[in-house]
Amino acid sequence: MKSSALVFLAAFIALSASWGGFVLAPQLQLGRAAQVKTVPAQDNYPVARPGLAAQGAEVYRSLGCVYCHSQSVGQDGVNCEIVLTDAGTNGAATLAVLGKLNAALARADTLTGLPKVLMSVADMNAADPILKALGSAGAKAQVVVSALGPDIARGWGRRRSVAQDYLYDSPVQPGTRRVGPDLANVGVRQPDVNWQFRHLYAPTSLVPGSTMPPYPFLFAERKLKPGQPPSPNAIPLTAAGVFFDVSKDTGPADRELVPTDEARSLVAYLVSLRAEATLFESPFTAPAAPPPPATNAPAK
Amino acid sequence: MTAIPPTSPLPIDNSCRLPLFTLFGGAAVWLALSSGFGLIATLKFHAPAMFANCASLSYGRAFPAWSHLLVYGFCLPAGLGVGLWLLARLGRVELAQPWLIAVGAKLWHLGVLVGLIGILAGQSTGFEWFELPRAAAVILFLAFLLITMWGFVTYTRRTQASLYPSQWFVLAALLWFPWIFSTATLLLQIFPVRGLVQASVAWWFSGNLINVWLTLAGLASTFYVLPKLTGRPLQSHYLALFAFWTLMLFGTWTGIPAHAALPAWMPTLSGAARVLMLIPALTVGASVILTCRGVKTPCAGGPLCYTKFGAACLVLASVLLAISACPQVSRITDYTWFDHGQNTLRIYGFFAMTMFGAIYHIVPHLVGPDRVCPRWMRINFWFVMPGTLLLALPLVLGGVAQGLKLVDASVPFVAVAKSTLMALRISTLGETMLALGNLIFLFNIVGAIVSYYCSVGKAAYTEATALEPARVKA
After folding, report:
1. Are A87 and A107 in contact (CB under 8 A)?
2. Residue among B198, B214, B104, B204 at smallest CA distance from B151
């Protein structure tokens, strides 16, 4: 009898420990999280998705997009650079400050061709005294923070995903497999709803070589009378079954694919996926928006 | 130390017959069906447009249907059936309330069916390994309680006081599942927690289900079947005890993936636990080797073969889990097919194989000898064994190759996706062999059950008709 009590006790202790660690502790640490302000813009973040997009999240869940797509950007640390934007009126004083930081910078041509990257530093804390010293010499500088890592380099986001990003999602869909690209910021990359509709209908027609399955059941086909204008957001097709395009020589539109309510809400959800607010816990300085890769297609 | 009871006491087997038929029969059906969905899912990588007009068969539904049927349809009932049998046999006591257990088993299968329909209709919860909608979860929970309750009663009525290692594993498994499952159901479905806490709960649940529950239930069988079939005592109870404690201690922390956007201590702790899971796995490996050392019993595709292969897969899967927990490796293997390969190795290679071995060992006790054809049992082995390897290993290796490309941002994404197709297509071959093997398993088990009831019916008929002439004479 003694040993069976021991078995139960052992199981009980082991399981309650991990329950405390992975169920209770995150609830205490994150469960009461609320909207925060972005830095420096002080906007509220996150905001609840608008109605249609919220319905789209349900379609995303119901169609199991999560088995191929993650929504979780990773980063391998940050790159902090000090950028001199204004040398001030007293060039000699600025150069003297710079010379203390790095002898190689104490040259007159450092002050020309601004803005200019002076140096990389470990983090914001290391940058502060330098900015102060430059400021006291009358010069102006700023810190540019950018995230590093393959996800960032792929253009999947400008910073890592943080718990705050998922605050209003239920169920959360961070995903564990990337058969397809990360979608945490797909609304930034592909804000064009018509692109999204066409992509869902026939991924390979937009992204040659795509392995994503098509979702034709999200569209209802409708015959077009000659000269009848297509419905809004519908995909016009020619008699040969290719996408009708006025600017190309595709022939006249013959029928159209009208997105169902499900498709409309799903696409509203997709374009609402933007997890790139600058937060205190995951800062970055937005450089003039980096050009997003247009498609995932291999470069020709 | 207790030895395994050498004889097969008839009343115990009689008491087990009905509930175990219900559990194993249903499990075999779900397993075969799950392979069907697995095939549909993997075929999407050959022809993405296949069944494109059918939402229920789209990848995002066929894949969870596969995993739902595999885990809730096959693994749990099979593990429960074997566990109940162990409790009865090792406790030398008849199973308590076999009828109610059978009702619980039916209820369980109903819950699985409701879950399957829900998933195919788009009602999945969106959490991996916990897709079943609320109604199904509640049914499964009640069914589990009903079955477990009589398992505990059987245990307390046992006539053999001292415990054999398998019993610890079964008892812990019976305690483990209701706890994790009720937590997941309550906190993900009934009173959902907010934000990323959901992910944490879901990962905690799936880690405990796949890495702990399946291992507990599987090892209960391994530690029973091996000594039984080799005729050598288990080497040793201390190793088994050590594996038991360390499995629970470390396994329960393994769920959180390295890339989780949760507070950093959580994935770090999980990573450490995944590495430490090597300890129980290697202990099991050592125990199996020591127990089987010098044994001349030919294994030839029989239960012994299944069980040994299962143990080897457990060790291999645990080594992979540990390797992929190192930050340098997880950076590459995270988000790739590697994890899925490791999981299939654990679920099919270790758990399902061990269960096949146990079921092929147990069922002849229930239906009488000669009703399970040894030849078909061997053929089954030669389908599922290579099938498992062909399914899991390409995913593991392909996952590494995929990861190396994924972390190199100069490789365009579509090129990464296309480069995995080869591995996926080989694994389709494995999935096909597994599907055939699982069909054979279904026929073997259902065939044995049907032929048992036929003979019972025939005997009853002859008995009934034999009375006629006597009555006429009188």
Report:
1. no
2. B104
Shortest CA distance to B332 belongs to which of B323, B319, B341? B323
Q: Which one of B116, B162, B197, B406 makes the best mutation probe of the A interface by having the most chain A beta carbons within 10 Å?
A: B197
Task: Report the alpha-carbon distance of residue A170 to residue B292 in Å, rounded.
Answer: 50
pLDDT tens-place string over residues B234-251? 988 999 999 999 999 999
The two tokens of residue A150 are 């393959």
Q: Give the nearest partner residue to B198 out of A172, A177, A214, using CB atoms.
A: A172
Residue located via tokens 């397993």: B31
Q: How far is CA B161 from CA A46, A56, A88, B87, B228, in A?
A: 60, 58, 89, 12, 20
Q: Which tokens sit at A260?
A: 């169902």
| Peptide bond between residue A252 and the one before it cis (omega within 30 degrees of 0) | no
Q: Strands, E, within B266-361: which ranges?
A: none
CA distances A105 to A97, A136, B325, Å, are 9, 18, 44
A30 CB within 8 Å of a chain B CB: yes
Whether B136 contacts B111, CB under 8 Å: yes
A77-148, which class in CATH? alpha beta
Burial B67-76 (b: 16+ CB within 10 A, else e): bbbbbbbbbb
ipTM above 0.85, yes or no: yes
Burial annotation A29-65 (CB, 10 A radius, 16+ → b, else e)? bbeeeeebebeeeeeebbeebeeebbbbbbbbbbbbb
C-alpha span between B395 and B402 (Å, rounded) = 10
pLDDT band at A139 (very low <50, low <70, confident <90, very high): confident
Chain A nearest CA to B214, separation (Å) = 15
Distance CA B399, CA B62 (A): 21
pLDDT digits (tens, 9 = 90+) for A15-38: 999 999 999 999 999 988 888 888
Give me B400's structure tokens: 């590494």
Q: Is A165 on the interface with B (CB under 8 A)?
A: yes
Cα B81 to Cα A292, B27, B94, B355: the distances in Å are 55, 10, 14, 10
Query: In angstroms, what CA-CA distances link B287 with A233, B86, B237, B315?
Result: 65, 19, 9, 12
Question: pLDDT tens for residues B66-122?
Answer: 999 999 999 999 999 999 999 999 999 999 999 999 999 999 999 999 999 999 999
Are B297 and B361 in contact by the 8 Å Cβ rule? The answer is no
Best probe of the A interface among B43, B152, B200, by most A CBs < 10 A, is B200
Whether residue B291 contacts residue B234, with contact meaning beta carbons closer than 8 Å, is answered with yes
**Residue boundaries of the structural domains of chain A:** 77-148, 196-262
Q: Which residues of B224-243 are buried (b: 16+ CB within 10 A; e: fewer)?
A: bbbbbbbebebbebebbbbb
Bridge partners, A255 (sequence order): A223, A237
Per-residue exposure over A241-270, b if at least 16 CB sit within 10 Å of its own CB, e if not = eebbeeeeebeebbbbbbbeebbbbbbbbb
Q: Are B59 and A299 within 8 A, CB to CB?
A: no
Whether A95 and A108 have beta carbons less than 8 Å apart is answered as yes
Q: What are phi and psi of A79, to 5 degrees?
A: -110, 120
SS3 for A81?
strand
**What tokens appear for A277 in the block?**
């607010």
Distance CA B448, CA B380 (A): 15
Q: What pTM, to 2 d.p., does this model score?
A: 0.93
> Contact, A180 vs A200, CB < 8 A?
no
CA distances from A69 to A61, A178, A267, B72 (A): 11, 5, 15, 24
Contact flag A213-B44 (C-beta cutoff 8 Å): yes
Spatial neighbors of A40 by CB under 8 A, at least 6 apart, are A278
